[in-house]
């Protein structure tokens, strides 16, 4: 049986999202085998290397990576994208992985779309739809269950993990909102992503250059390479190309494979014990986010 292009690229989209989840496991592995390594150092290395490679690729495929710097306003927006979009979504996420685990960090980051809803309602006066309100409440309940296991008098995760996890979710929102104007101007996503990643890496290096005394262990560098290749280069290409053949809403549904992969990997390889409330909270957050991507009236009309 011959698969359609849409089916094939849906599978590749699933692979891309799963790779993002797998890369978080490699990050946690680095933090475990090399205590001197930290989120700041790993983010710097990943951003500098990945950003440079993506820009080189952009140049080869005709993306004109230097063109955006000829417009002063677009250049300012690009710097803002790197500092306030890409930097928090990457650095805060790795801090949450370092202090907690890949599962919690990835699921917490998954609530990012709800900060977008909050921003649009507060600053652009766009009233949220009923499904968005319901999904936001469900997601909040999910975060509450993850953080407290249903008990009001104590946290099941450390305040630091909760803080950095939610901050990375805010980063998801800013990382989505800031580049919209530049995308509408016709700049390629490869160029914008490459520059924003590189800018965030340069900024972190300037603010606090991290040079940990790492042991001569090849596992560390193989894992760093995995974070860069599996966590950035390959999935970005798969995601970008898949959107040529499948709808954005379809791809957003595939996002669920990222926290699922990170959670299963944390349980299987790192011995993370997921209690019933952890599973319930994770499922609620994932389902709430997916609900934003499904045109429910059309969905039920089609299935009934």
Description:
Residues 8-147, 162-293 form the EamA domain. It is a single chain. The chain is mainly α. The chain has one domain (16-208, 218-303). Helix content is 77%, strand content 0%. It has 14 helices and no strands. The protein has helices at residues 5-33, 39-60, 72-99, 102-109, 112-123, 130-148, 159-177, 180-184, 189-207, 218-242, 248-254, 257-270, 276-293, 296-303. The chain is globular. Mean pLDDT is 89; it is low at 298-304.
Low-confidence regions: 298-304
Work out the helicity level. over 70%
Nearest-integer average pLDDT: 89
Radius of gyration: 19 Å
- Tally of distinct domains: 1
Keywords: Cell membrane, Membrane, Transmembrane, Transmembrane helix
Domain EamA: 8-147, 162-293
Family: Belongs to the EamA transporter family.
Protein name: DMT family transporter
Question: How do the strands and helices of this protein lay out in sequence?
Answer:
Blueprint: H1 5-33, H2 39-60, H3 72-99, H4 102-109, H5 112-123, H6 130-148, H7 159-177, H8 180-184, H9 189-207, H10 218-242, H11 248-254, H12 257-270, H13 276-293, H14 296-303
Protein name: DMT family transporter
Keywords: Cell membrane, Membrane, Transmembrane, Transmembrane helix
Transmembrane segments: 7-27, 47-66, 78-96, 102-121, 133-150, 156-178, 190-208, 220-239, 251-273, 279-300
